[in-house]
Predict the 3D structure of the following.
Amino acid sequence: MTTIRIVATALAALLATPASAVLTDSLTIGNAKAISLGHAVTADPPGIDAIHFNPAGLADLKGRQSHLKVVAGTFAIDMAFGDYDPETAATVEGYRNQAYYDEGYYFNDALNSKSTTEGASLMLPVFGMTDVPILLAPLGGASYSPAGSDITFATNVYSPMMVGFYRAEDDPGRWIGQRMSFMQITYFSPSFAYQVNDEFSFGAAMTFNYGGVGFELPFRGGNPSIFGLGELQATTLDCANTDTGNPRPTDFLCGGTFTPYEELGYLAMEVETPMAIGFNVGLLWRPTSWLSFGMSYVAPIPMTLEGEFTWTSSDSWLGFMLPLAQSSLYGSLENLVQVLGYSLPDTSTVTEGKATLDIEMPELFNLGTSIQVTPEVKLNVDYKFSGWSSWQDLPLEFSKPINFLRLAEFVGESTRNALVFPLGLEDTWNWAVGMEYQWSDQLALRVGVEDRPTSLPSGGYTPLLPMGSGKLYGAGFSLKLEGGGVMDMGVAYFKNSLDMPSGTSPLGNDTDPLNFIYNPFFGTDIKTDLSVLLLEFSISQPF
């Protein structure tokens, strides 16, 4: 593995989450009607946000209308770290009983501890990674249909994906991510819908999108086998008795030591693209006054994100590397590996350079029906497809190699400046059901539920962002205002719990003794609870 693989792993877990839920995959569009009905709106498109859900629904918007929206939410990941499994506990205890170092050398701050996220961190244009206590975003758009015309034109500002969090500086969960965010903002979406006849309409939208990814990750080894280095220094190398006036040939290995549970380096990266173009299309058929069918398609959006990365080596790592790099043996090895086309780690305190990430937001396909069961009750049902199987690989490029990347070349984990990380995500199909009750001529009440399955393959869970399958529950209301305006409010809640016993997460608590690079909770039981609460509010009115 490599530091680049750390990047890839972090992004893999983060970017894989849209098919799962949680501040992703339409949740932060800002449409109160949609979340109230569990996103079962393909055949009952929700106003200006029909641009995203089904552009054909724009045909229902007549005259000139403004649409103002606010989305707010909280996002929390709670983790509970248990004890070591018996085999790992015996290994650590064996090293501790040798008493070569004081008790602090063996301290693991994540053992039998709890972690929680502090708030949201958003990757914003111009500002980059920005910490906020809660998610809060004002959005909106406008539509226009000339009098007597069958065509409606519209544009909208919305966020199909808004996910991010940060943790306290001393939170034990920081080893799996101190700060992370993924943002997609559609800032311009010229759209139209055409009412072919009383029963049929179709629509299309061209979307201009900002995409940004940012994260900060303190890195530790986590593997108790690293204690073997300290044992070697304390016994065979007898590093406690070095004499600068009478150096020994092996003293270059005595510069310093480090433990599995301390920071070896800190990786920070922000990449973005100001414009990526997408397309949405939709159809709407209403054969009777009480029945409608809808279909919509969101085309895949390719994105090339560019930015910068920084790797900062810790004092512990540099203390070990400096004497090693200054030895004559190291110089000879460097000359040899260069002949073979490789290079050894150096003693750089900070490595900075350009970073590039190529991704493609997957295609979405939605089918739905809306049935007016009684004059007061309307039932919506959707069936949806997300094409995440296109994410089989995640290609990353860096302008400069990082020390661990140099080592990884020897085992074929990467090239010096690039890594293609296998993700193996899977396509998902899911259902959604919503019901609206017309309480009065002015007031309608709504409830909904949506099944949100994970796109992660079995065995691919990680505490980085523990996104398993779950249900989204929504509720809300619509109130007609004087002058033809409409006010909508909706609330949605999602919760997911995962249990990852020791050795079940290759990117978290693996027990493979050869897994040194990105396995911060080696041999430790992990339980996670992820919860999301969203509140969305909108006002649409003629102007």
User: Anything to note?
Assistant: Residues 3-15 form the longest helix (13 residues). Residues 1-23 have pLDDT under 50 and may be disordered.
